[in-house]
Amino acid sequence: MNANEKIGEPRVVGLDAHPDTFTAALIGGTRPAAAVVEKTFDKVPLSRLQSWAQKHTAAQDQIVLEASGNSFEMVRQLAAVGPKALVLESGHLGKLKEGHANNDKISAVRIGKAYLAGTAKTLWVPDPQTQERGDWFHAHRKAVKRSTQMRNRLRSYLSDNGVRLAPKTPLASDPQKVKTQVQSARSWTSRQWQVIEGLFLELVHADQQRRHWRGLIAQEVLSDPLMLAAVQLCGVRDLTAFALVAIIGDIKRFARPGSLVKYLGLNPAFDDSGQEKWTGGIGGHGRKDLRCLLIEGAQAIPRCARIPRAQWGRKLLARKGQKNLVVAAMARKLAVALWYLLRGLWTPLEQIDLSVEIKIGKIITQVAPAKELAAKVGKSRSAYYQEIAQRLQAGRVYILDPHKKFTPKPAPSMPSTLAQEYGLV
After folding, report:
1. 409 and 277, same structural domain?
2. How far is CA 391 from the centre of its chain?
3. Which residue, 65, 222, 298, 304, is the most exposed by fewest CB within 10 angstroms?
4. pLDDT in tens, the chain (425 residues)
């Protein structure tokens, strides 16, 4: 038993982690100015993290580390042996770097003192399933980006050589047909054609990766009751539903709808200092990836003529005259709807709307083409759809009343009368 365990005085343990090693600083005191570095451990192998924590830290100590590639895994390893660990946001810690000198020991002390100062934001550590889903989402985004880059590179090279393709030419879906078209457009040297062949190879590979991840995401959405329930909302497709659940994780992190709206960056920015006041639009804060998906989905809401949100949006557009403002407002309404749905406020679904039927059909197409679907999921398209329809009717449905004024009170359990009280029907 070490001295700290006998006295019972908590310490802060700053960890500066790397892929193979970590450096730790044991810091006593409750304020940065009065903090005392009791001991440092430099370049300890990461494989010894758990045994090191058991030997040199006490139950009341607080371990803190900067967000990095393996920080979440380190927190899970430490939790398995007892010590509490938190992950601090790296942007703020990077600004505190010493200008004249820096090494791992200084960084470990800086991380611990930043926690004592209370200025560094603490990050939520996702559970393993949420992190795995997040990895899928980011892999899909990278594949989409790579596919777009290769399309642009191919078109640019052809344009540089005087060949212009029609805007909707299927470059990746039917490459052989496009190559025949390009080959007959002009005479190419062997070196030029090798470049074109290489660009087509990269494009086809990138598009295969994109379709691979999109198919996995679509299948995950259709098999997960929570994601499938979110798809029923007008403006939410499989990718949006998957991204929300994958990145938000535990919806109980957000005590009220406004907290989720703020996290997504859908609340207007403002600056009120002295005599100067400024109010701006959204953007510049929050989760840009999720915000973009909700903004994109909100643009489809006005086309859903019968839902209250679409009628409310058209009235707002007539009053304000700014389409972007209306789309952002509807995206906020959509975020509120998702909060209530994910928190468990629901009513039984009596029948599946035609628009939802069409949407589910498109998602099934993303899983695999009709000819390959049976081999991938083990059943025909109609049987697969019937299975999904049964899960939909046994799951949640949510219809938001846009005129309902929500108060920041905790979401209760699921009595049937709550649907009417909260404007869910």
Report:
1. yes
2. 25
3. 304
4. 444 444 457 899 999 999 999 999 999 988 888 888 999 999 999 999 999 999 999 888 999 998 888 899 999 999 988 778 999 988 767 766 665 557 889 889 989 988 998 888 888 889 899 999 999 999 999 999 999 999 999 999 999 999 999 888 889 888 999 999 999 999 999 999 999 999 999 999 999 999 999 999 999 999 888 888 888 888 888 999 999 999 888 888 998 888 999 888 888 776 667 766 656 667 667 888 898 999 998 888 877 766 777 777 778 878 877 788 888 888 888 888 888 888 876 555 555 667 777 888 888 888 888 888 888 888 888 888 888 888 777 665 555 555 555 444 444 443 343 333 333 43
The full DSSP string for 245-269 is HHHH--GGG-SSHHHHHHHHT-SPP
355 located within any domain:
no
What CA–CA distance (Å, rounded) separates 183 from 163? Answer: 10
* pTM of the predicted protein model: 0.80
How many structural domains does the chain have?
Answer: 3
Which value, to the nearest 10 degrees, does the dihedral of the CA atoms of residues 129, 133, 14, 48 take? 60
DSSP at 124: P
Q: What are the tokens at 246?
A: 């994958």
Last residue of a domain, one of 221, 245, 267: 221
CA distance 410 to 311: 29
CA–centroid distance for 258 within its chain: 18
> What is the token pair recorded at 118?
């209370």
Round to whole Å and give the CA distance between 294 and 292. Answer: 6
Q: Which two tokens stand for residue 124?
A: 């939520």
The pairing of beta strand 21-28 with beta strand 84-88: unpaired
What is the Cα–Cα distance from 96 to 274, expressed in whole angstroms?
28
382 SS3 class: helix
Within a domain: 241: yes
88 token code pair:
């601090």
Q: What are phi and psi of 222, to 5 degrees?
A: -70, -25
